[in-house]
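The passage that follows is intended for readers who have already worked through the single-chain material. We present the inputs for a multi-component assembly, then the predicted structure in tokenized form, and finally a short commentary. You are encouraged to pause after the input and sketch how you expect the pieces to fit together before reading on.
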Amino acid sequence: MLELETRLAQQSMVISTQYPVMVVGGAEDKVNGCDILTAFFESAGGSAAKIGIIPCASREPTVVGDRYYQIFQKMGAQQVQVLDIRYRNECDEARWLEILNDCTGVFVTGGDQLRLCDLVGGTELIKTIKQKVALGQLKLAGTSAGAAMMGDRMIAGGSSGESPNQTLVELTEGLGIIPELLVDQHFHNRNRMARLMSAVAANPDKLGVGIDEDTCAALDGSGVFQVLGKGTVTVIDPGSLTHTNYPQADAAHPLSLHNLKVHVLSKGDRYDYKNRAVLANSGVR
Amino acid sequence: MLELETRLAQQSMVISTQYPVMVVGGAEDKVNGCDILTAFFESAGGSAAKIGIIPCASREPTVVGDRYYQIFQKMGAQQVQVLDIRYRNECDEARWLEILNDCTGVFVTGGDQLRLCDLVGGTELIKTIKQKVALGQLKLAGTSAGAAMMGDRMIAGGSSGESPNQTLVELTEGLGIIPELLVDQHFHNRNRMARLMSAVAANPDKLGVGIDEDTCAALDGSGVFQVLGKGTVTVIDPGSLTHTNYPQADAAHPLSLHNLKVHVLSKGDRYDYKNRAVLANSGVR
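Having made your guess, compare it with the prediction:
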């Protein structure tokens, strides 16, 4: 009986540290505890991890790529490689696809999400990543721009400091890794509640997910994410919306959104994004 | 029948421009349309209005008082006076109370809400204002600090740019004009969603109301407010809260708040804050 309990406890620990997809709100700790990056490293296999870094959202891919290279090397990954892709047509080249096929984890850095999607969207590279993630052969993490691209609708840019309105957010196609979610990042840090609300008004079938810096929505592969890191993940669920003036309102007229459901989730909280419900608290606090 | 309809229409118009209390999010237009200030002026009696300005939240009461003095004079008020109160004991003096008793409207300016409450809280001045508002003898408007003081709990200060947490907001006693509401102002403009959420976590019996700049929650005296102005009023209703880690979480640990109800209200939207429900849209858009 003790043995069974021990095995179940071990199993539960294994499950809770395996994250097929990690959506990181930017500015994750890279110096001290490195909790989120360590969780990705462990998830990708720990000392057996073969990690590929995709820095092409950044205009300084060499600098950014090298920074993460050093981090995962220092953690003791078996192999770390930077997929320093500069042109879109490179994404169909065998040299990169071979590296990718050998990876157990891929980390997508910050930068500009439009640049990222222009470079990799619809290519063999991204198709392979999606396939391997779906098959459980690859763990994927993206931070900042690398988080923004996760949905099939993407916040490409926008402003802050205004009331929610249609001009506050630029929306385009994302990479569709997690189609249900409409992700924003650096969330409370950069005053992005109004722009995420505006994005949700335009996409009321999606779930708005605003992730703070050094914070992560870590998907467990069963339609549930768990919150890791030091901030909050804010979920805006328009499923019970009773009224909006979108898109009838003039572009700059502020939006009305009546009866949104909103959750503020912190470390250990788990959210079922398929069924749109917070799970009973099961996490470590 | 036509006569009855006309009378009802007129009556409904009269009701919709009479606001016993106006809670303004700061930075209201003072130059162009002056929609909100005009609504207050009309509400206080228009050309028959006798307006008292309370500038004592500000450290420049002369400058601020004079600014509003000029505005209401120009609008054509019958009388405008600045209650330039510098010391708390002045609030019990007959000279101010006599002016106040003659007023049809009182406008409380911005500044520092703690300074305001320290000066006027619990004095004859504020008791008289509350009595006269309750009796329908006086219209009250407050902007910025003058809005913050409306509840019986008040956001005295705080920070922004962080995840909701207990250290993000300083709470103290307000003046209790509208006990149900916990008001924040300059809301989306100054990234105050996280601090209002933190304030609501500490006061789950209150309704969080975040008012943008040049925007107003105009109370109609029956437990309903209507939105005026160019921005939004955000209502955070914790009535269906299923879980919070407040106050168990360490002070700086982010907060969890599961199942908040949130409304984004824009011009013309009406909200019943006694029964916590958005009313069918009846406003001018």
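Commentary: Residues 2-16 of chain B form the longest helix (15 residues). Residues 4-15 of chain B have pLDDT under 50 and may be disordered. How closely did your sketch match?
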